[in-house]
# Entry
Amino acid sequence: MKSLLNKIPVITNQCRFNVFWNIFILIFILFSSIVISYRISFGLIRPDIYYWIIVFVFAMDVFLSFFMDIRIKYEVICDQRMIARNYLKTFFITDFLAFIPFFFLAFLIFGQQENKTFLHYFMLVLYGFPILKLYKIRHIFGEIQESLNFNPNVRRLIALGFWFIIGVNFIALGWCGIGASEKDRSFFDQYIRAIYWTLTTIATIGYGDYSPDKNSNLQIIYTIIVEIIGVGVFGYIIGNISLLIANIDMARAQFMKHMEEINVSMQSKNLPISIQNKVKNYYYYLWETRKGFDTGNLFTDLPHTLSTEILMHLNRDIIAKVSLFQHTDEIFIKEIVQLLEPVVFLPNDYIITQGEYGDCMYFLSSGEVEILIDNKVINKLGAGSPFGETALLKDEKRTASVKAVTYCDLYRLSKENFDKLRSKYPEFDENIKKIMAERQK
Amino acid sequence: MKSLLNKIPVITNQCRFNVFWNIFILIFILFSSIVISYRISFGLIRPDIYYWIIVFVFAMDVFLSFFMDIRIKYEVICDQRMIARNYLKTFFITDFLAFIPFFFLAFLIFGQQENKTFLHYFMLVLYGFPILKLYKIRHIFGEIQESLNFNPNVRRLIALGFWFIIGVNFIALGWCGIGASEKDRSFFDQYIRAIYWTLTTIATIGYGDYSPDKNSNLQIIYTIIVEIIGVGVFGYIIGNISLLIANIDMARAQFMKHMEEINVSMQSKNLPISIQNKVKNYYYYLWETRKGFDTGNLFTDLPHTLSTEILMHLNRDIIAKVSLFQHTDEIFIKEIVQLLEPVVFLPNDYIITQGEYGDCMYFLSSGEVEILIDNKVINKLGAGSPFGETALLKDEKRTASVKAVTYCDLYRLSKENFDKLRSKYPEFDENIKKIMAERQK
Amino acid sequence: MKSLLNKIPVITNQCRFNVFWNIFILIFILFSSIVISYRISFGLIRPDIYYWIIVFVFAMDVFLSFFMDIRIKYEVICDQRMIARNYLKTFFITDFLAFIPFFFLAFLIFGQQENKTFLHYFMLVLYGFPILKLYKIRHIFGEIQESLNFNPNVRRLIALGFWFIIGVNFIALGWCGIGASEKDRSFFDQYIRAIYWTLTTIATIGYGDYSPDKNSNLQIIYTIIVEIIGVGVFGYIIGNISLLIANIDMARAQFMKHMEEINVSMQSKNLPISIQNKVKNYYYYLWETRKGFDTGNLFTDLPHTLSTEILMHLNRDIIAKVSLFQHTDEIFIKEIVQLLEPVVFLPNDYIITQGEYGDCMYFLSSGEVEILIDNKVINKLGAGSPFGETALLKDEKRTASVKAVTYCDLYRLSKENFDKLRSKYPEFDENIKKIMAERQK
Amino acid sequence: MKSLLNKIPVITNQCRFNVFWNIFILIFILFSSIVISYRISFGLIRPDIYYWIIVFVFAMDVFLSFFMDIRIKYEVICDQRMIARNYLKTFFITDFLAFIPFFFLAFLIFGQQENKTFLHYFMLVLYGFPILKLYKIRHIFGEIQESLNFNPNVRRLIALGFWFIIGVNFIALGWCGIGASEKDRSFFDQYIRAIYWTLTTIATIGYGDYSPDKNSNLQIIYTIIVEIIGVGVFGYIIGNISLLIANIDMARAQFMKHMEEINVSMQSKNLPISIQNKVKNYYYYLWETRKGFDTGNLFTDLPHTLSTEILMHLNRDIIAKVSLFQHTDEIFIKEIVQLLEPVVFLPNDYIITQGEYGDCMYFLSSGEVEILIDNKVINKLGAGSPFGETALLKDEKRTASVKAVTYCDLYRLSKENFDKLRSKYPEFDENIKKIMAERQK
# Structure
């Protein structure tokens, strides 16, 4: 048996089956909880086809949970044993209780029971066991979010909606259960009117067409409790929805606010419209390429080794293209990578001006530049091109201008930093001197 | 035909016609949406004069949209072809459906229909096509805001108001449509009472004088939906209005808060009232001239070339006045501009004291100063004047005092930075030496 | 006449009469607005004693406004002419209209009028003129707040309360005015019930015992308007009250939050309780002496001359006590003052340890210290004492320890800064050398 | 008597009796306030068993208050006299009035009184004296929180709940007291229905089944007051609960938000999933070990002596293990401790690479590292180990690599700082030179 199980392959997240199943089971738990609580409330408990569908689907879920890969923190675990062990430790017990048809067993033994007997109440409880599946909802939402990688605020909004439906359903059924609904209507009509009463109450509307019977302490106390909890929770939800909606695109909101400040500031300085538009377009460029998050922050927080790894990943190719740095050590490249400063140039900006004394070289990360000698375009360079490296070797005037054609993201390597590096790595210094000697020929 | 169209000039935003038309069409869409939905709800569909006015105005709007300049990001586009292409890609389809009198065509073919037949419902739908114009509302608001350049929070407030009216109108008409209104009243009275019910419900008042018929599931379910959505949206709007009002003058709010902190801090230090008032007046000066935004931030975020351009625009004239810097290169002025530090002096402050060793020169950006020799006023200087430049050339004591008469915004250029510049630009250094030699004669 | 007026002295704020009058007139405007609007609403307009009291008090206010000092920004203006001119420009017109007994004049001419005639309505309007005084409320609140210098959030709370009462009063009287109140009750009972209806509506309670007549469009539309505006404003007020209350002691709230963070941080580091209590007590000390505002910020924002003035005010006396700095220039003291760094020592901390090499001197700003030689207390110093100044002159080991007895706020002057100063001011340097020579004898 | 009292030992907080008693008295005050106000409202005042229990418990509380240790700021005071003096100054008077059976004394003198006589009202007031205990509630909450050291937001939530119950109880009893409840029901039923009315009103539901008698001005005015205050307070509470819940785990919320930003940033840079997971896991590690609070901040705010004390506590042991620093002065260790920089390394990161020139040594604060020579693991070090100290003495290449096995928190001591220390402390420098000489042998 065990060997058989081991043969079943672990269902990895790649094939998207996991996400599908999680979404399905989420919706299924929502409906089954409503159906089961509805039937308990009106005493309609029978092992019919709906009952067996629930039992079957929840059994399937237990089975599949042994074979679907899981995530602990950010590591995906595909080992069947670890998955099983983790499942047994976490959700197995509630899942197990939810799918075993205890009610059916009791039904077989005791048969259909009269209302208001002890056995009847006992069987109501047994019938309600699948509601335990709600315990797993939080986990399922987490799994879906991580698989689809959507905004956590959207997840929270959906989760709020889920629990709101469950909550309203339970309050409404409680209202029916204590006999406050109109008994002469059909069960479904009672249910609809109970939901109507629930919403009218917790949204603090209170038309007064449905209200507790003045002679029933039970109904009055039930209403008091719903008023305290329901109204609080409803107010909390409304408040949270505003907040969540506001947070869904917080980056954009911050960007818009920043733009507004820039705007006011430029107007108070009476800058000409052409410069104002240049500034605005620049910020739009930043927004579109960086989504408003300052990438600088990301690296400064990280440990040295990790930030170097990221920088290496981002800039390795671009550095390898420079003839100066070919045949140099990995360690050396790592050092250079940390010395690069990101700079942005606007269209038509001169990055290098012919005749200036150069004190740095550039690596073009994105965008396009033109090489001009005596104001004639002699070449164009695209993303990934290094230029101006002679300035690192000798104090000469720039022999050509470089002009940005589009917005350009560049990395700048200053002579100062480069010289420090040379003095630190004598082998590299030798290498450079050789290249210089060759070039001067 | 095409050549004819090309002769029609593009209506640019300069002549303000665009703003006028956008505001008109905004209000017109609001009213026509209400009128059309009202008539559909009560089955009052006829191709009467109101109908033809709507058709005509929306046709005009389609026509004009081909000839009004547009903005993409911050660039105004006046080319008739690009405008037409852009319009066809964006709002043409809905605009087109909204103005074609489909209903009239159907009316010609089928004539007036009995209630509750399929054709009747079909013609209701055709009659409702102009409501599609609502799709363009967001765009129109954006256009108006950019033309008039008003506070985006004010725009959002107005937009909220717009959609609130539309929303309440639709909910109320829905209430009439499902037969929940008092049938024996006139259509208009039914409409007023439906609006009354809608507001009483979504504002969670719920008098209970109008509430769904207890025997109508349809009305109860409709109310449930209005309660969930309407109440949520109403709460969201109330919450947003507070926030928007708070944000309309956020700069002022932040300023007031800062003043409060300053106040508490000065009181806890037991500063004399005269100094406290000096500090407060200083902050009021800052607020009035800079609207509370620190202009420093604006420049630090920008790329070097752009911030230089802004600085050049702001300070070029003032620098050109200094005889030292006349006959100097454009590049050189650019360098100086970046070395200026903004400083503020209060009325009666001594900017330069006679007899001190000077280490900087100043450019008076705004305000008025007095030149004093031996405490006698010998001259006054207004905005745009440079002074103290001899300190940049030789280590002498200041030969005169300079005293601020009003609040003065100055730029400071230190000898240290100036010397760096001289060593960097040998031509300029030569120039300076010549001027010094001449002066010393 | 004019010369007579000039003899009347300006009532300055010192004698507190201004504040008293402002508070009185504030309350009086509240009551008179309610009384007048009540009488207009029920048509009870007669030139009785209450009417003449209002006329008299408002006439007094106009008179006094010519003689009470005013504030423009933070300057108090006591010149009678400027006061009069300012008053004529600002509130004179409404104040004038409010006190002239137009109604009485009309009453003399036309006599008591029948209800619902044009003249009756005209006289209702004339009777309502004193309500114009509400225009001045904002100004009066501002005056009171500045005189008493209380928290601006408290002011806003009180102002909110004021306008809330006025608003509820007007809505309620409107309700009576359109005939929605129970006509068979007394005027006062109608008023009370109208207020009850107003509050029940705008607080969104909506019992439904009072609601608009289903057959009166006027009442229904009035209710719709109250629902939209009243509910919005009520929600806004509730939201603002929370915010204002939260802001009243924001400094404390920030402090408490900071303490909480410190707490968690110390617990996660497993620091012993004794150190934890030391840290907590230190922050409590900071809170009690500085109210949580970092005084550093205050000075950095200010222009150089102003911050120097504040520092001079705070530290002048303490510096003048040092024998080294006696007989030195004012300019020199100004320089020193800017070099002082504030430091705090805890009880039992050693500020100076005997035998150490000293590199700074201290000025004790508040607190008490002990001088110890070889662990024996030989002296105590209180606030205002300088010590350790020999370290500024020569590189010697400290000859005594100094220990904090209580929490001590000190200013530190480092030898490094002191030496810079000496090299900058040769006269001072000479002075110091002399003192050193004398001491060495 | 006094000597006897002195023999009773002070009950310190160690034995937890204080917390127990405070919680008990808190709940007891809640119940007794409700019971007493209930009885006063319905005129059920009699010196029965419940009355005597209250008298007895409150007498106990007065007695115990003389013997329970108290806290002033963060110092625990155990001196019996100071406790007594403090108690007499603070809560003794109200506690005293609350426990003396004034009512019983009056009952003995006057006997049971008829309703609505003056004496009856007087005795109602006397009966109500124990409600004065509510004055102490705030203090009790503070005591409990400090003893159990739980989240202050949780405390505020519980306190809000407490006062909410008290408030609703008083409003409901007021409603009964003014005769608005249904007189033909039992007292308890009236009370339940009054609470139902109260909640329905302040939660702004307003069914309208219970509302003030239209003919009773008293009831209408009472309702108006409840509407203004109750609704405002209820709204305030709902708003605060949201805020408090949001603040309970603010650290986590900030962490989650930061993670979200990191996520977006990494996605926009197209970093490979493996690096993304590394970054995420790193932040999770930080969160788990530091709870999101940057410990750096904690120390920078503190005075030098205090931060040194904390650093000494945290790092003393680890430094004492380094043979270099043995036999060195306490003062010297203090200096070193301030030069340590915290650094983090990830699993598999090389902390030291064989063959590099070293410029620092490390102290392993937590985690595990491997020592490798020529890529062979030759040793493992655990928390508390120093390594790489030879680099501080001479410029040699590293003779071994050190690799992090787990996440490692280290402190770094650079050669630069170490050399400064040597030049500052000549004795220490001698010591180091000796050790070096020995090692070189």
Notes: The longest strand of chain A covers residues 360-366. Chain A has four domains: 1-149, 152-248, 251-292, 296-440.
